Predict the structure.
Amino acid sequence: MFLFIYFCGMYIDVFKFGGAAVNSACGIKNVAAILKQFSTGPLLVVVSAMGKTTNALEALLNNYMNNDPLAVIESYGKVRDFHFSILEDLFEDKNHVAFGEVDSLFDQLRGYIRRGHLYQDAPHEYDFEYDQVVSYGELISASILHHYLVLQGGHPALFDVRGLIRTDSTFRDARVDWKTTETLVQKAIPDYFRNHHEPGAIALTQGFIGSDALGNTTTLGREGSDFSAAIFAWCLHAREMTIWKDVPGVMNADPKWLKDSVCLETLSYREAIELAYYGASVIHPKTIKPLENANIVLRVRSFLDLELRGTSIKNMREWKIPTPIFIRKQNQMLISISPRDFSFILEENLSEIFRILANFRIKVNVMQNSAISFSICVDADPLKVNPLIAYLKKDYETRYNEGLELFTIRHYTDDAVHRIVKSRKIMMELRSRNTIQVVLG
Ligand code: ASP
Ligand code: MG
């Protein structure tokens, strides 16, 4: 109810733009146009790093951690040039303040990575350094977008998210301190909108990052900006949250793979969580949960085709299943584990195997148990799987097949299964009322 008063009768909306939306000057211009067209009231905008900047900063960080100054300079230069070429395209006036501000962010970053060499101050542990370095991607993109929106006559206010999202100190995978975050967000953002009713008033902030109680920068895990937006939506009791993407919405299959895939008009929160669980790259369950708790509609729509309405994810008692939904995972490996003496697989074996899997941080995509063997399907990541197999082989007969595909079909029909399996060899199959999973050779 207090929000009703704070925002003069208007509920706040939250928009999130990912790296693909802001990967070029054109992208930034498009975002500005979307904001002009779609902001009808108080709006909070969360933005990620531009394009593939996070990957580029990871490369820079690795060079820094490996103490390879030449490689550091080169990778730093790449990130800097990429952003400055976007600035050049956006701002005709080469004395525009945006250049100076972005320059000073890059100076800070350079100061940070030179520190080790100047003061012989060895880098801290990887996860800590990761957050200090990689977070510049979001700091820089938000600064550029902010200045461009001002140039276009908008009224954005840039909030440093590190003053709003408080986390613990689990670097690279920080846990949100909801209570403190809620207090900080509910103080800063409504205050701003109470004083800014003009059309185009926008609170702009960075996705992916936060800070711990000591003021260290933290990050919420890769692809964490959707989650950042959901945190704000939850704290502000937002009306809706929109994730702007380069696809028409949530599709029933990857359009690159299934030519006649269709966009799902609606999804229930539950179904969205299920899809994420089975590996659809829709939305992370972490993002859905706060929205579900506060009953905030999540829209996923295209920043490329504004005519399309996209997908609404919401609370639906009865979600009418429109079509089977396909999730494909390539590069899978099937590992079968049996006790050496061919005795039965018993609870003790299973609990030991699960412990080993957890120790090796292996995510099991499907598993199946028979009398004398336990089979798991996992991503064939040699760095993780090879040591696992070596370890298992000490105590178990361990066999594996590589080069497989895992298909999950939600709300499957015979036709849908046939379409996938065709004449391929089924290595494993698991079927429940709603879901079938098949591992194909
Ligand atoms: N820039 C970060 C990443 O690429 C966060 C995000 O995009 O959501 O992982
Ligand atoms: Mg990104």
Q: What stands out?
A: The first strand starts at residue 13 and ends at 17. The radius of gyration is 24 Å. Confidence is low (pLDDT under 50) at residues 1-6.
